[in-house]
Amino acid sequence: MVRLTEQTREEYTNQVIQALNANELKHFREVFLELHPTDQAEVFNSLEAEKRARVYNFLAPVEFADIFQSLEVEAQKHIVLELNEKYAAEMFNEMYADDVADFLAEIIETKAQKILKSMDKEEADEVKELLAYPPETAGAIMTKEFMVVKAVSTTTEVIEQLRKEGPDAETIYYLYVIDENKKLVGVVSLRDLITAPITETIENIMSTRVVSVSTMDDQEEVAKLIKKYDFLAAPVVTKEGKLVGIVTVDDIMDVIEDEAEEDFGELTAARGSMDANISSFTAAKKRAPWIVMLMFLGLITGGVIGGFEETLETYILLAVFIPLLMDSAGNTGTQALAVVVRALALGSAEKSSLGKMLKREFGTGLMLGLMCAITLLLIVPFVFPEGGYVLPLIVGVSIFLTLSISTMVGATVPLIINKLKIDPAVASGPFITTINDIMGLLIYFSIATAFIEYLPN
Asked: Could you give the CA distance from residue 27 to residue 16 in angstroms, rounded to a whole number?
């Protein structure tokens, strides 16, 4: 199997196009099928509609199923319209149930039901089972293609079973042992199976300490478990302990990517509008609530400045340092926010470590504030000598207090939100920035007002 590089991609694409243009079935299959399915999908994506139509004729549904599974959902929606119903039904029958469920969950329900009716009943029932689970749960992302064995079977019998059933399983690195009630009672790794004596029974080599997840567990918790134990797959069981599926590491990689994108969207107040395929109107509609709320918070910021209008009129040079204080407060708060949200997302922010983390962030804020204050105390007198020694003192003390408090705000707000069972990422960067701007201005103008009479005229 060949892996495409930047240098060879164009070469292989040209060979595929030439074979399609010449209607050379044999040459096309020789060139195309030696590629990895992901690379096949990349080449396929670069083809025009006319040439894609020839690909459908040159490839069997089972061969095209691997390509379809490698495509992005938006591309899948477009491609499925090009397939005739019989070809599409056979392709969906050959795909893993979880991949079919992922696709059907993204299209109109009437079309999804039509596809399900065209599929074989057994395959369709498995997909329906996955679609019945709430989104972002272990049940919704699990696959139904896995290996189960009996405890009384010998290693020789199981290896023979592997030869027959293995090609249809999504992974065979773990073999799950069930009893007569389909309850999970043990697990055997492929290594243990191969290295065991040929007459040994599974019950003597299986591990009974099975780490599993429930069908209703959140997908993020499943991802943490697989990461913690370095699993390639985790079994999914019902409340009664019956094995109903497995979650594989490749599905978890997709989960981690989706969760990271979701958190990044929350942190930047752009959730739901990060997809490059959506329209400008849709993106604006999704971002508007945050922007409007932040606009009103901005009015509060303006109100704070207006409330100290007399102080500004008395000494206009104070206005020069407003952007400096606001930017510094927002930046330090966002940094602390990112640290805490990451810790919560990874599950490393346990109760025992929360105090230590907050103490560290507060200490970080103090150190940053002190360094910035000293820097300003040294620089401001040279840049604005007309301010005397009082102006740099006001700015220095203000920046010290602002950064110290802003860091704690950025660290504590997501913890409070998390305690309320809300995604801590909603404590977005712009939100924290605006709150810290208001606090920074209050601190600055309060100190400036207190020392206004000592400023030189």
From this structure: 8
